[in-house]
């Protein structure tokens, strides 16, 4: 819908109309000013009030045309930007070598298909041939000037009305023009210092102390870009007051454990001022070194350095080495546990900007190879970190220090391998209808699967069923394994064989449990009969949506269920219930340890936080993600953002479909087509605490169904299933994730989206480059990665 407003103004009313025009421009970009005598007022005749051209509309990422399924896509972030062009896939390398550890393999009869060749590049259009000039040489400059597009004309107005409009690309150009016009007018009236003070105060109130800006993925950068677009003669006065305001806030005394949200936007602003060269880099490095050496300023110094490295790491590395040496010495003084993640991110990011094997400029030479391992710095354990700082890559062991303790910086961790191709290795054949769910037991190296045919299959290493468990009374909608005992848990939806269209069957939903046969001689394929451990029923249970082992040393598991109301006239409740399979006794007699009822609709998924065995997360059809500590009676936080319409916190715009965790990160998918990455360290783990996403992106425009990172070859590698395709994404570098898409099948069969995907591995250790997919096709597809 396009709204056009026409305003008639007398010539002597121009000054009085400025505030009115400012308000109208917040409603629409199409404001036309006319005078009774001259008609529409153009830019040339009324520069003080004419409205400039509207900013170009940036289409949302969802509106981009869907690329062919054979092409790998770079994720479309949720930030307003132009869609990225898909890249043609490289021809996959040879299929990955057989894993060294026991791992399932495709059935022997399956052929290893030859990957489809990449599609041909379309012919590139030829550049237009230069045309002879139509103007005489002496007229060309004038003609070019006349043809140049005119920018928006500014209107003097209160600066607090301009600053919020800097955030949106649609209003930013006009907002900048209005700020410049206001400062120019104040300069003519000899009140420029007061106007600059008003501008900086508006930034403090509406940007630096604004919770919406602090929690935003784009931070203060759109606002701070105003500095670059100010006229040269106005920049020094704005710079001096802005830098003073920012440094005053950052140099207040704080303990290392201080809540960073109180000053994070100021640290972000400092880094942008360095990026825009308002603060010289050598001066910034010296300021950072001084703050790092003071325990009361260290939390701000670490945060400022992290943001500076994020925005302008290359500029930092070009600083004179004498200044950098002082910075590395200051970093050596940072020993607090709260900063270990920040230091790892800072050093890894800087090393990534250098040639392989190089040391940081200004650092002393590396010690001899004979330096004992005990002299190396301990591997930092991730803790709290800035909201937008990418997480570090995992490292198997710390490297030796790059220099003696007096002037050294730790070496970067070994980089994660990047996948170069994904190939379809074959299929597991054994089911006769849709396969809904799978689980992988890393101890035995066996996959289990279940679905619509009432069969629970446990697969051998040769890709054929090693065991068949009859559960013909139920569909299997969810599977998991208790790691300590190897017990398989299956969530069952009852089947009515007699009348599919009639009333529900008498058999209620339940969780079925099966104990494995003994594995002689250590972990090996479990052959032989599995022993039923019973069925877990529940009074008034209407539906079981999932069953999930919560890991750790115990046998605790969670189920999502709909429970009938105990009081007549009240609605049924959607709850997460916890049970302990190690308590002994028949499963039929088990009672919940606790039930959590804070979701407002069906609870669809859950995942343990492997780094903290007491904590797990759940997602639901209410678009919420809840964080739970099983020692507490209520949630200890949530991930999401406040929905202004409903007043509730939502993690996604539609049902949450899957959750998985790695290190201190949570990954989520949703029907809204987005995948999000969240950081547990941004939560205080108290009831009511909320943290927003670190990353929000789309792989295509279709609903996103499943995500799997547990058991992947490294902890920053995720498999993602959507209605359109199967992807593997390396998110070691969050700003530029590397994505592969599964190739077409060599037998020409159409793609069927995957109800479940699993890596051949378990939590806490790198898995094998083997990925399983379960779909409406009774066969389970097996994919391999090459690096």
Automatic annotation (TrEMBL):
GO terms for biological process: proteasome-mediated ubiquitin-dependent protein catabolic process. The keyword Repeat applies. WD repeats lie at residues 428-459, 649-688. Residues 92-107, 114-139 have a biased composition (Pro residues). Residues 51-64, 71-91, 140-158, 371-387, 396-411 have a biased composition (Low complexity). Keywords: Repeat, WD repeat. Residues 51-161, 361-416 are annotated as: Disordered. One of its GO terms (cellular component) is Cul4-RING E3 ubiquitin ligase complex. It comes from the Eukaryota. Pfam families: WD40. InterPro entries: DCAF, WD40/YVTN_repeat-like_dom_sf, WD40_repeat_CS, WD40_repeat_dom_sf, WD40_rpt. This is Guanine nucleotide-binding protein subunit beta-like protein. It comes from Astrephomene gubernaculifera.
